[in-house]
Specification:
Blueprint lengths: L1 H5 L20 H18 L3 E2 L5 E3 H8 L4 H6 L2 E3 L6 E4 L4 H10 L8 E10 L11 E10 L4 H18 L4 E7 L3 H17 L6 H6 L4 H4 L8 H5 L10 H16 L5 E2 L11 E9 L7 E7 L3 H4 L7 E7 H10 L11 E4 L6 H13 L4 E3 L10 H10 L4 E4 L2 H5 L2 E6 L7 E5 L3 H5 L6
Parallel strand pairs: 1-5, 7-8, 12-13, 12-14
Antiparallel strand pairs: 2-4, 3-4, 5-6, 6-11, 7-9, 9-10, 10-11, 14-15, 15-16
Helix pairs in contact: 2-6, 6-11
This protein binds adenosine-5'-triphosphate and magnesium ion.
């Protein structure tokens, strides 16, 4: 006992925050692959990248997303800046911050913008498959254009992304939320309907009945299904202009072979939407099946203090997209180096490393064997590491070869064991042919 108490206590192991995941190799390779596909596609659609702060003033989200929303009511990581008392929030989504930035920098001065972002978002939700507290979104936003053609363009962009990624079994649901005056008429009808069935409402719905009845349609409570299904539909309240906008979006999708279904109860989780809203959904991920959602938000820019301008966008959940790919059995091969340098003796290190630098400069992926601090280790253990690295070839920097200005190239995969000598001074020229050795 006494001995134990006098000993230094063992440091307790620190673990990450619940619902916030580490993304390590080999999984990170999937992420890099996906991000590269997205960058390529965004470039083909002429969308430009933005990188925005992760922390924003809390007021931005309260004003932008709406006070009576899941996010603002219960999911935000908010805190006070200890140094100046500012109220700050870890961004729960990307649109509000992007709009804030566009307004702040007067970015629409010269006309509309097509932008995209990638990055972590934070919501204090109950962690489960497809639902995390730090998760990642990729978003595309078009600001300054009010026509249905950009709504359709964004949907086509997402649809193309599923093709590029090889995603199957994703369906598209569409709805129109109309304009504020149309929503007002619908709102009254909605309140009347829910009041009539007050006994069927859950606590959330009762609370929102008069503050934000539309939100009730977005319920995740299956018990609310019937009363939501029988609620008056916004589509029936749309005027001619809203209907024409909706029909124009549909016509473009039809002409481009994009299948969709109309879901009159699709309202999305934030208050800022109007006219077109949409979600891409899969049935392969259980109840966390929405992989991408978006819509038009023509009044948000104004709400955040900017000069009124229309906008539309979507955001996809990276974790859910990757989970769906995994579910399909589509896993990218983890990257392997082209060559692994086996270095029998520390004396060879300067030349070996110089050679590897030349190879890397020529575009070859080269991994150097590293020792424990006491020499380079046995040839056997080095070859074991070379094999384990997945490299196609080992470069053996033996003293004898080096004395003749040469290195041994040994095949580790196809035709494993075959080897030949290469002159060190011609490394860059044979680097590219390594694959076909
Ligand atoms: P859900 O209805 O599943 O809660 P949402 O309507 O809150 O989603 P959005 O705010 O529209 O989601 O975010 C866009 C996408 O981001 C979602 O479709 C989903 O793929 C992903 N997403 C949202 N919340 C999470 C989360 N907590 N963890 C992982 N992905 C998420
Ligand atoms: Mg949510």
């Amino acid at each position: 006992m006494t001995e134990q108490t006098t000993k230094q206590p063992k440091a307790t192991k620190l673990v990450g925050v619940k619902g916030m995941n580490d993304i390590l190799p080999p999984d990170s390779a999937q992420w890099e692959w996906l991000e590269a596909q997205v960058r390529g596609l965004m470039a083909r659609y002429a969308y430009r990248n933005v990188r925005l702060p992760i922390v924003e003033p809390t007021a931005l989200f309260v004003r932008g997303l709406g006070e009576v929303t899941d996010i603002v009511e219960k999911e935000m990581y908010s805190f006070e800046d200890r140094l100046n008392g500012e109220q700050l929030t870890l961004r729960p989504e990307g649109t509000a911050g992007l709009v804030r930035a566009v307004v702040e920098h007067n970015a629409l001065y010269e006309g509309g913008k097509r932008l995209y972002y990638m990055g972590p978002m934070f919501r204090h939700e109950r962690p489960q498959r497809g639902r995390y507290r730090q998760f990642h979104q990729i978003g595309a936003e078009v600001l300054g254009f009010g026509g249905p053609e950009v709504d359709a363009e964004l949907i086509l962009l997402a649809h193309d992304l599923w093709q590029v990624l090889g995603l199957q079994a994703v369906r598209l649901e569409l709805n129109s939320l109309g304009q504020p005056d149309e929503r007002k008429a619908h709102r009254s009808a909605l309140i009347a309907h829910f009041e009539q069935h007050a006994d069927l409402l859950d606590e959330d719905a009762k609370r929102r009945l008069h503050s934000n009845p539309l939100r009730i349609l977005d319920t995740k409570n299956p018990a609310m299904g019937p009363v939501v299904a029988s609620a008056p539909q916004l589509l029936d309240f749309l005027g001619e202009a809203s209907m024409a906008h909706f029909n124009a979006v549909k016509a473009i999708l039809d002409a481009n072979g994009v299948a969709y279904s109309i879901n009159p109860r699709l309202v999305r989780g934030m208050d800022y939407y109007n006219l077109t809203v949409f979600e891409f959904i899969t049935d392969a991920l259980g109840s966390q099946g929405t992989i991408c959602g978006g819509g038009r938000y023509d009044y948000l820019i104004e709400q955040v203090g900017g000069k009124p301008a229309p906008a539309v966008g979507w955001a996809l959940g990276v974790e859910r997209v990757l989970e769906l790919l995994k579910e399909q059995g589509d896993v990218q091969a983890a990257p392997v180096p082209d060559v692994y340098a086996v270095i029998p003796d520390v004396a060879a290190l300067p030349v070996a490393i110089k050679t590897l630098q030349a190879l890397r400069a020529a575009g070859v992926s080269a991994q150097m064997h590293a020792g424990s601090g006491e020499g380079m280790g046995s040839m056997k253990s080095q070859f074991k590491k070379a094999d384990g690295s997945g490299a196609l070839h080992a470069l053996v920097f033996g003293a004898e070869e080096l004395a003749q200005g040469q290195v041994t190239v040994k095949a580790l995969r196809d035709g494993a064991g075959a080897q030949r000598l290469q002159p060190l001074d011609a490394v860059a020229t044979w680097a590219h042919s390594l694959q076909s050795l």
